[in-house]
């Protein structure tokens, strides 16, 4: 059985959506929570709510994790609290949508830093303590987009393919060391993700909820999976690439995700 009570969990992108839902569920299970996102006001409101409702300790670190030195700064601030991270939820990330050449290269590079570099950096920072304790959990937010090239979201899908591959490899490395590592793969989910991306025009609509994604994540950890897909329909979408050539998948996604304008 996986134990959460008395553990310290770090949740990135915790001010809303999946991150907020993860923080609440972990707090309900008795974990102390370190909340990280850019919004100081939202984090403090959530911290007060969780402390009052679940009688756990909460810590707020407002920080832009897309900045180059943010991982080091976060590590230092957690050390000043005198804490060790037992559970890491690498949730922070965003996407872009449109023809690649029309998207600001600065925005694409920012996404690569946040979706890949920060995730790798935080995993590298906190994994050794978990290995020493022979107990720990790392959940990396991947996506159904991890399983195939995705036209008009080319860089985003590539970052999530990295997250899936990275997580599965670390799962194999750590399977006998007491550390559970999971790539959690949601489909379209009702969060601010699509507002940030600048579109809500997604194939099949936006159906998932943060709560369903988090429930799936806990199920994946309980079963000690290397990855898990949220939702039956999304699972079958993820499996299609096993039966179609990569070129074929790219051409299919181009038709499906082509911008309407």
TrEMBL record:
It is an enzyme of class 1 (oxidoreductase). Its EC number is 1.-.-.-. InterPro entries: NAD(P)-bd_dom_sf, SDR_fam. One of its GO terms (molecular function) is oxidoreductase activity. The keyword Oxidoreductase applies. Keywords: Oxidoreductase. Belongs to the short-chain dehydrogenases/reductases (SDR) family. This is SDR family NAD(P)-dependent oxidoreductase. It comes from Salinicoccus sesuvii.
């Amino acid at each position: 059985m996986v134990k959460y009570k008395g553990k310290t969990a770090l949740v990135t992108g915790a001010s809303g959506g999946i991150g907020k839902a993860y923080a609440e569920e972990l707090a309900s299970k008795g974990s102390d929570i370190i909340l990280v996102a850019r919004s100081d006001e939202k984090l403090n409101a959530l911290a007060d709510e969780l402390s009052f409702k679940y009688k756990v300790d909460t810590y707020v670190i407002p920080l832009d994790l897309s900045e180059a030195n943010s991982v080091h700064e976060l590590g230092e601030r957690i050390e000043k609290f005198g804490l060790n991270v037992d559970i890491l939820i690498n949730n922070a990330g965003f996407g872009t949508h449109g023809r690649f050449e029309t998207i600001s290269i600065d925005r694409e590079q920012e996404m690569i830093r946040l979706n890949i570099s920060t995730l790798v950096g935080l995993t590298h920072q906190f994994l050794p303590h978990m290995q020493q304790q022979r107990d720990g959990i790392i959940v990396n937010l991947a996506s159904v987009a991890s399983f195939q090239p995705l036209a008009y979201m080319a860089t985003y899908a590539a970052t999530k393919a990295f997250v899936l591959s990275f997580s599965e490899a670390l799962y194999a490395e750590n399977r006998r060391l007491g550390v559970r590592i999971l790539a959690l793969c949601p489909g379209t989910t009702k969060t601010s993700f699509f507002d940030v991306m600048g579109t809500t025009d997604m194939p099949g609509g936006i159906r998932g909820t943060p709560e369903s994604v988090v429930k799936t994540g806990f199920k994946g950890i309980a079963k000690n999976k290397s990855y898990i897909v949220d939702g039956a329909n999304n699972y079958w979408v993820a499996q299609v690439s096993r039966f179609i050539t990569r070129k074929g998948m790219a051409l299919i996604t181009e038709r499906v995700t082509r911008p309407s304008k």
